[in-house]
């Protein structure tokens, strides 16, 4: 009987996937070739907008083997969900065009019903690398005008470039009270600050480079790990309270002192308990390389003894819609003014809660989970790194192509299902893709209502948080 049920689920999913009608819901022409583009949702009252953070330059990384001098500036462009420009702001030459120099976050800290836009900028534009002059800037989401400016917390001097320029902005809730968080560092000394509604400092944390426990990560998902209506966020394997900045736990604190590229919350839908999927970089090349923890930071399972697990995700693509986790081992990362690529790619996929291998019949590298038709089962878009824009169902069948890379994959306009925001390097166009036949299921609606969904979909212009929603 169970075999018959699974077969029916698979056949139903295949039929639904075959019925996906991918179309452009809106399009916007930036007017020049796009080297890099990030995007976040911005809500003003009942209106839903999209903020584009774009540059002619490719993504610039602070590591000396990847850094190059920018040839252009970063531009913020707010567009409507119909693809109409509302305002535009050129940030000028003072900030390097790169996610680690210039995080951007949308958040209604003052609770007036309109998102503000938070970013790092420079009060001394003649010296773009002078982090001592960096500021936290607050923009009005409706007009793009500066409505607040605060000193960016200073990092310790005499660090390498790669350690110095690692900036984050995020936010969550303590009960219903919003808390903004700023942070600096990833590999060496790290510091984090919490801010109240009036921008008075709520808490501050310093983590020394030689302190026990893990380094930071390239992602910083926000998750109410113990379901008490107080958000925590993951700082590497450290689970930190938005309320007081204290650690609830630090997973493998005595045995893991390296840096995990990916730390991804995955929800057990029946029990409502969270697990954490982590993928470890090679700066400390000790086994294991993929580890999944429970909601107390205790190991559930682990896999792989060697290698740099550079990226990964969780997606509901199992036989019965259960979550599968991905970890991608890479050989070498190359980033230049022409873009980035990786060599020696080896994807590994597992059942999220048991660690049992779950081989796929296609290469999941460069994919991002997205539920286009709203059935609670993820499709996958090859919209990351060197992705070719293909949209696949969970069995690897091709459903269409978005014509570029993806800057968002979530529900960000009033349309059934989730959407993809794509950008084309060559044409300079940004497109919103949706399924014309989408119909939100009960599971999909539960996902959208979960507080995790809203706070994490705002993180896609800060760190590599483009995949955070796949585990929900």
Number of helices: 4
What would the principal axes of the Cα set say about the shape? globular
Strand order of the largest sheet: 1-33-32-31
Beta-strand fraction estimate: 35-45%
CATH topology: Methylamine Dehydrogenase, Chain H
Fraction of helical residues: under 10%
Radius of gyration, in Å, reads: 21 Å
Number of domains: 1
What is the CA–CA distance across the termini? 28 Å
Q: What ranges have pLDDT less than 50 throughout 5 or more consecutive residues? A: 1-16
| Secondary structure: number of strands | 33
**CATH architectural designation:** 7 Propeller
Please report the first level of CATH classification, the CATH class: Mainly Beta
Largest sheet: 4 strands, antiparallel
- Average pLDDT value? 95
Helix- and strand-based class? mainly beta
CATH superfamily: YVTN repeat-like/Quinoprotein amine dehydrogenase
Secondary-structure blueprint of this entry?
Elements lengths: L1 H17 L3 E8 L6 E9 L2 E9 L19 E6 L4 E6 L13 E4 L8 E7 L11 E7 L5 E6 L9 H4 L2 E8 L2 E8 L5 E6 L5 E7 L14 E2 L8 E4 L2 E4 L5 E4 L9 E9 L4 E8 L9 E4 L5 E5 L4 E9 L6 E8 L1 E5 L2 E5 L2 E6 L15 E4 L8 E4 L7 E3 L5 E4 L3 E6 L8 E5 L5 E7 L6 H8 L1 H7 L15
Describe it.
Strand 12 and strand 13 (201-207) form a beta hairpin. The strands form 9 sheets. The protein has a 4-stranded antiparallel sheet, with no helix packed on it. The chain has 472 residues and is mainly beta. It has one domain: Methylamine Dehydrogenase, Chain H. The chain contains 4 helices and 33 strands. The longest helix is centred in the first third of the chain and has 17 residues, at 2-18. The model is unreliable at 1-16 (pLDDT under 50).
């Amino acid at each position: 009987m169970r075999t018959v049920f699974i077969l029916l689920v698979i056949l139903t999913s295949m039929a639904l996937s075959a019925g996906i009608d991918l179309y452009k819901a809106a399009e916007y022409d930036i007017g020049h070739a796009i080297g890099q583009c990030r995007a976040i949702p911005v809500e003003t009252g009942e209106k839903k907008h999209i903020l584009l953070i774009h540059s002619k330059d490719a993504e610039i990384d602070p590591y000396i083997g990847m850094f190059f001098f920018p040839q252009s500036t970063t531009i913020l462009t707010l567009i409507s969900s119909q693809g109409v420009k509302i305002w535009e702001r050129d940030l000028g030459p003072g900030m390097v065009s790169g996610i680690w120099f210039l995080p951007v976050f949308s958040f209604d800290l003052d609770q007036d019903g309109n998102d503000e836009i938070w970013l790092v900028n420079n009060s001394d534009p003649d010296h773009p690398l002078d982090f001592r002059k960096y500021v936290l800037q607050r923009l009005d989401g409706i007009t793009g005008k500066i409505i607040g400016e605060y000193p960016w917390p200073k990092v310790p001097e005499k660090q390498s470039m790669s350690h110095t320029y690692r900036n984050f902005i995020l936010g969550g809730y303590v009960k219903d009270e919003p808390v903004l968080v700023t942070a600096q560092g990833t590999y060496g000394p790290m510091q984090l600050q919490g801010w109240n509604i009036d921008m008075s400092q709520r808490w501050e944390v310093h983590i020394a480079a030689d302190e026990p426990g893990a380094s930071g990560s390239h992602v910083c998902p926000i998750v109410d790990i113990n379901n008490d209506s107080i958000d925590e966020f993951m700082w590497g394997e450290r689970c930190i309270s938005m309320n007081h900045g204290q650690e609830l736990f630090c997973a493998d604190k005595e045995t893991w002192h390296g840096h995990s590229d990916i730390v991804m919350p995955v929800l057990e839908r029946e029990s409502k308990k969270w697990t954490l999927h982590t993928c470890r970089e090679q700066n400390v090349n000790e086994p294991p390389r993929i580890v999944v923890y429970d909601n107390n930071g205790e190991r559930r399972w682990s896999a792989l003894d060697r290698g740099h697990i550079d990226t990964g995700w969780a997606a509901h693509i199992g036989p019965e819609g259960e979550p599968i986790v991905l970890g991608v081992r890479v050989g070498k990362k190359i980033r230049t003014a022409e873009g980035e690529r990786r060599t020696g790619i080896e994807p590994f996929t597992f059942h999220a809660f048991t660690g049992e291998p779950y081989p796929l019949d296609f290469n999941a590298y460069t994919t991002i989970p997205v539920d286009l038709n709203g059935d609670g089962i993820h499709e996958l878009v090859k919209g990351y790194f060197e992705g070719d824009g293909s949209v696949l169902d969970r069995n690897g069948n091709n459903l269409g192509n978005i014509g570029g890379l993806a800057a968002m994959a979530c529900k960000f306009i009033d349309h059934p299902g989730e959407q993809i925001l794509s950008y084309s390097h060559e044409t300079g166009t940004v497109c919103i893709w949706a399924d014309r036949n989408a119909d939100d299921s009960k599971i999909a609606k539960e996902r959208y209502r979960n507080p995790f969904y809203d706070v994490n979909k705002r993180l896609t212009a800060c760190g590599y948080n483009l995949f955070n929603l796949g585990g929900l």
